[in-house]
Specification:
Elements: E1 4-8, E2 11-12, E3 22-26, E4 41-47, H1 50-55, E5 74-80, E6 83-98, E7 101-111, H2 116-120, H3 139-146, E8 154-155, E9 159-160, E10 182-183, E11 190-192, H4 193-204, E12 207-209, H5 216-219, E13 221-224, E14 238-239, E15 258-259, E16 262-265, E17 280-283, E18 289-297, E19 304-311, E20 314-322, E21 328-335, E22 343-351, E23 355-371, E24 376-392, H6 407-417, E25 420-424, E26 430-435, H7 436-441, E27 445-447, E28 458-460, E29 467-473, H8 478-487, E30 494-497, E31 505-513, E32 518-519, E33 526-529, E34 545-549, E35 559-562, E36 567-570, E37 576-577, E38 579-582, E39 585-588, H9 607-619, E40 626-632, H10 635-638, E41 646-649, E42 652-662, E43 667-674, E44 693-699, E45 706-710, E46 718-720, E47 732-738, E48 747-756, E49 762-772
Parallel strand pairs: 9-33, 10-35, 12-26, 27-41, 29-31
Antiparallel strand pairs: 1-2, 1-5, 3-42, 4-7, 5-6, 6-7, 8-11, 11-13, 13-34, 14-22, 15-16, 16-22, 17-23, 18-21, 18-23, 19-20, 19-22, 23-24, 25-26, 28-40, 29-30, 32-33, 34-37, 35-36, 38-39, 40-43, 41-42, 42-43, 44-47, 45-48, 46-47, 48-49
Length: 797
């Protein structure tokens, strides 16, 4: 017999014997951060038994002064046959009275997991803490990032927001001409997406884990840091200190109105809060005025500075000044009417460059009175703070220059871009991130044939989508708009219609913009343009732009760059665009198979092929069916079952689309979908090129188990960790490095991966084969050009 136990603050509640407790899980819950949780919410009633009355302190009777507070959720846990099932909170909703007697209590159980949407709220990227990215915005740092041979957290893509760069045409903006270089002040920065994830973790106290976070398709991904038309950057803000340590503060009646870096405006009653002057006779009224003054002076340079005033944390206004002007009164305003108070003011200073300065912040309160000579007079209570030689370093202000997008929208956009799942682990603030196909592949399998009610099984055809769309935000770049006009479709998007199907629309719309880049003829130099169409070529503010970083290019690269000290010839750089390298192969940020602007050939490893094809191809398989059935699962399966597990009924394999479980009866209602995808617990590596190189194979052991890697490879092939490996308990990568293939023939080698359950039994065994080709070549015409097909595909041997 199966029983459910509910504990509140470690005290077991009495339950009605016929009370039904049911949970619902479906695949959609892990594809939307508003539903990223294995949260279980259930409202039900419990009897008003003496035991429960004691736990809830007879809540129905408000004459009782008990310790149980219904407005506060109490710690709780659910068990099935004394086996832990869920931890969470219980909210007492109310009590039912019948014939003058307490009959029952209504309670709601909430799973003890939080949603990312709740954590992120309405915060935007500008609200993250970028102090770990501090770097000066100067020509030397920008040039160093452009010429770097490795990916940095902050890079500077060659994207113009002011000029239409050309090459070797003698034009006004010909960057091959030393007199017409790219200027460092033209460039906006880009921040590495994994670093943004780090900043999100730090702000919200969450941890994201998963092999994909170190996959080159993600570590090569950047967000362009542009929220204005032109790059008029200022330094990080310097908070102006103002506290009770300032002169004359401690001895006044307004000492309590100042705190670190802020002025707290509060109502001052002349009758109770103010020490009357010695010549005081009477107040002329209860009114008074609050004043705030800020002086900026003795500035070290003529750089423009910006004094931002914040009222209750919201920007109230900005005062601009420059130069070394003694006693420059930056701000002097009257915060009028003593009765309209309760606001907090803070002040920050930014600058166009490095700056040393002096400043004074003064707050005073004034109120008129009649003195003993029957003359009008004014009482002034003053408090001020001064600092000399305050210093501003010209660090980039990533907060004020951040793209205008919510943290939650940016994060969910990343999930959609790569078709990622995100779900909590045993710690409710630790989330696993992995591609959907890997999530399925790493799941366990269960044969539920003996537990299925064969009397009533429903078989339906899947309703196939009549339209499938993968889209980016529309771009105003003249490159993208020209592509749209020429091809009648969005660059980087993908769309297909199926008029005979009736399943509605399947749309993946990213909150990002995808720029089409341009490569100069005869040069390995690729640039982008954030400019509108001819003839205006005006800069515009894009939606957040996603970029891929490619490998450092050292051949056929030559352009001139002005770093403000010298004009240098750049002969190597790391191009941004829509291409990246992963496991020695090219991958694309486009959904469809576009011709790469950098590689000048189609890049087949698109977002659709890499991340969406397995799911949709399974759905459109002619043999796919939707199966609805009932079963009663034993606790040994029920307590371990997760949505990524495969279920077998006789000899057929299914994925779980929807699952409803009655904890009391053990009855499960399952909606399953046929699974024709070949399971691989790792991503099969691509063919290794002749020149060799290193590939990284992600692995993940069975739940609670481990993996052992074994095999015999050629002596000059290195594997980390060494073979045979010790048991590997967590998700990680196997690194395999190949030398150049000089044998003249194709070389095939293999590694064996064996997964073990926690009890030591073998879960699965798979062998991965590596094929290293003997040559990379193309069929050539007699004139030395490529032999091309009509669609301009190169023909590989």
């Amino acid at each position: 017999m199966r029983t459910v136990q509910l504990y509140v603050d470690n005290q077991r509640l009495d339950l009605f014997q016929d009370e039904q407790i049911q949970i619902t899980s479906s695949i959609q819950n892990i594809q939307d951060i508003a539903k990223v949780f294995t949260d279980f919410t259930q409202t039900f009633t419990v009897p008003a038994s003496p035991n429960n009355n004691a736990i809830f302190d007879h809540y129905y009777n408000n004459d009782n002064d008990g310790t149980f507070k219904a407005k506060v959720r109490a710690s709780a846990r659910l068990e099935i046959n004394q086996t832990p099932f869920r931890k969470g909170k219980v909210q007492l909703e109310g009590a039912n009275i019948k014939d003058g007697q307490a009959e029952s209590y209504k309670i709601t159980f909430y799973g003890d997991l939080v949603t990312l949407k709740d954590l992120f709220g309405d915060d935007k990227l500008r609200d993250l803490d970028y102090s770990t990215l501090q770097e000066e915005f100067n020509g030397a740092n920008v040039q160093s990032a452009i010429e770097s041979s490795s990916a940095q957290n902050v890079m500077y893509p060659l994207i113009s927001s002011s000029k239409v760069w050309t090459y070797a045409d003698g034009g006004t903006y010909d960057v091959s001409d030393i007199t017409k270089p790219i200027e460092y002040t033209e460039l906006f920065p880009a921040i590495k997406d994994p670093k943004i994830i780090d900043l999100i973790e730090a702000k919200y106290g969450v941890t994201f884990t998963g092999n994909f976070l170190t996959d080159q398709r993600f570590t090569s991904s950047y967000t362009w840091w542009k929220n204005r038309e032109t790059p008029d950057f200022t330094s990080e803000p310097y908070p102006l200190t103002f506290n009770s340590g300032g002169s004359s503060c401690a001895a006044t009646d307004i000492a309590g109105f100042v705190g670190t870096n802020q002025v707290n405006i509060s109502y001052l009653s002349p009758y109770t809060d103010i020490t009357t002057p010695v010549d005081w006779q009477q107040w002329t009224g209860a009114a008074g005025n609050h004043h705030i003054r800020v002086h900026i002076f003795n500035t070290s340079t003529s750089n423009t500075w910006y004094l931002d005033t914040y009222k209750n944390g919201t920007l109230n206004g900005t005062v601009t000044g420059s130069g070394d002007v003694s006693n420059n009164l930056a701000l002097d305003f009257l915060y009028n009417t003593n009765g309209l108070t309760g606001d907090v003011w803070t002040f920050e200073l930014r600058s166009d460059g490095a700056l040393t300065f002096d400043y004074t912040v003064q707050y005073y309160f004034s109120i008129p009175y009649i003195n003993t000579s029957s003359q009008y007079d004014t009482l002034t209570l003053s408090c001020s703070f001064s600092e000399s030689s305050a210093s501003i370093t010209n660090y980039l202000d990533f907060n004020s220059s951040a793209p205008d997008i919510k943290v939650g929208d940016w994060f969910s956009g990343i999930l959609k871009q790569f078709n990622l799942t995100c779900y909590p682990l045993t710690d409710d603030l630790t989330f696993q991130i992995e591609p959907l196909d890997q999530w399925y592949n790493f799941g366990d399998s269960h044969d539920i044939t003996p537990y299925v009610d064969v009397k009533d099984i429903k078989i339906d055809r899947p309703k196939l989508y009549e339209e499938i769309t993968f889209a980016w935000e529309d771009s105003k770049s003249f490159m993208n708009e020209n592509f749209l006009e020429t091809n009648n479709r969005q660059y980087g998007g993908l769309k297909e219609t199926f008029p005979l199907y009736d399943g509605g629309k399947y749309e993946v719309k990213l909150p990002f913009e995808n720029l089409l880049f341009s490569k100069f003829t005869g040069q390995n130099l690729q640039v982008g343009y954030c400019l509108t169409k001819a003839p205006d070529y005006k800069p515009y503010i894009p939606k957040p732009v996603k970029l891929y970083l490619y490998e450092n290019q050292t051949t056929d690269v030559s352009f001139y760059f002005d770093n403000d000290s010298t004009v240098d010839e750049i002969t190597n750089y790391m191009p941004f665009g829509t291409d990246c390298k992963r496991n020695l192969q090219d991958h694309s940020m486009n959904f469809g198979e576009e011709v790469s602007s950098l590689l000048l050939e189609p890049n087949p490893n698109s977002l659709y092929k890499s991340f969406y094809y397995p799911y949709l191809s399974n759905l459109f398989n002619d043999k796919t069916r939707i199966v609805t059935l009932e079963c009663i699962l034993p606790l040994s399966i029920l307590t371990k079952l997760t949505l990524d597990d495969a279920l077998f009924i006789r000899d057929k394999k299914y994925r779980i689309n929807d699952m409803k479980v009655n904890l009391t009866s053990g009855k499960c209602n399952l909606v399953l979908i046929s699974d024709w995808v070949s399971v691989r617990r790792r991503i099969q590596p691509d063919t290794v090129p002749t020149a060799g190189g290193c590939i990284f194979i992600p692995i993940k052991p069975p739940k609670g188990g481990w993996i052992i890697v074994s095999g015999t490879l050629a002596e000059d092939v290195t594997v980390t960790p060494s073979l045979p490996s010790d048991p590997i308990n967590g998700q990680t990568y196997i690194r395999v490095c190949f030398p150049s293939n000089t044998t003249g023939v194709q070389v095939v080698q293999g590694l064996t991966f064996t997964g073990y359950y926690s009890d030591g039994t073998v879960a699965w065994t798979e062998t991965e084969y590596f094929q290293q080709v003997d040559s990379d070549s193309y069929l050539l015409e007699e004139g030395g050009g490529y032999l091309l097909q009509e669609d301009f595909f190169k023909i590989k041997l």
